[in-house]
Specification:
Elements lengths: L14 H7 L57 E9 L10 E5 L26 E5 L5 E7 L10 E7 L7 E7 L27 H5 L2 E2 L2 E2 L8 E8 L1
Parallel strand pairs: 1-9, 6-7
Antiparallel strand pairs: 1-4, 2-3, 2-5, 5-6, 8-9
Length: 233
């Protein structure tokens, strides 16, 4: 996984325009410079909680976690756009890779726990889980919210990547490259340095490859953020 310098690509908040704009994404991705760089293989870490069970994979599992089904109300939290690509170790894009994203809502609650029933504490407008099948340039795109905090964990996203022809997914987690504050503006007791997952990634390059800077989306009035993430197989 690698935090690259791809130019920001802003997709409007409107859901219909968001999906219509998906066709334009690949124009922002090129291989220039990749083969000349030392690519850091994405570290594989615990899948963690709470990947949906086979019995409760949501029907709405597209790449927009902000809006559930046709609800008019979107999920609470700071809207975040994550774009990137799946690449092989030589920097070549991987087409047809299944990228999955799941994480806690603004308050730190997951969509599901260990049963088929939706967690009643989770934001009713938050999809909680999404999938994207990479295109010819290996690209993917998600719209979600900034993940919430819960006891013992810093802020993080869970990712699963299944390469074409593979029966199992590789899993990792990504983090915010900044000081973590709770919803009251207080510094969280758990930061990246003492997080139970991040701190166990012993290789410095691997550890740096999963902590990302988020920037404010241009022309936003609601503080929407964005970053670029590459998964290196």
């Amino acid at each position: 996984m690698k935090n690259n310098k791809t130019a920001a690509f802003y997709i409007p908040i409107d859901r219909r325009r968001f999906f219509k704009s998906m066709a334009l994404i690949s124009a922002g991705f090129t291989l220039t410079g990749y083969l000349a760089e030392a690519l850091t293989t994405s570290p594989i870490v615990t899948q963690g909680p709470y990947y949906p069970l086979a019995s409760n994979i949501p029907l709405d599992k597209d790449n927009d976690l902000v809006q559930l089904n046709d609800n008019l109300t979107i999920a609470s939290g700071i809207v975040s756009y994550i774009s990137g690509r799946v690449l092989d170790s030589s920097g070549n894009p991987v087409r047809g890779a299944l990228v999955e994203l799941w994480h806690a809502d603004r308050e730190g609650d997951y969509l599901y726990w260990t049963s088929a029933a939706r967690n009643p504490a989770c934001d009713p407008n938050f999809a909680g889980f999404g999938q994207f099948l990479t295109g010819s340039a290996g690209e993917f795109r998600f719209r979600t919210i900034k993940a919430g905090l819960y006891m013992g964990r810093t802020r993080h996203f869970h990712w699963g990547v299944t390469l074409p022809g593979r029966a199992t997914r590789s899993t990792t987690q990504t983090f915010w490259n900044d000081t973590v504050y709770d919803l009251n503006g207080n510094v969280s007791a758990t930061q990246n340095a003492n997080d139970m997952v991040y701190s166990r990634i012993t290789n410095a390059a691997n550890r740096a490859s999963v902590a990302f800077d988020y920037t404010v989306v241009p022309v936003t009035t609601t503080g929407e953020s964005q970053t670029t993430v590459d998964f290196i197989s």
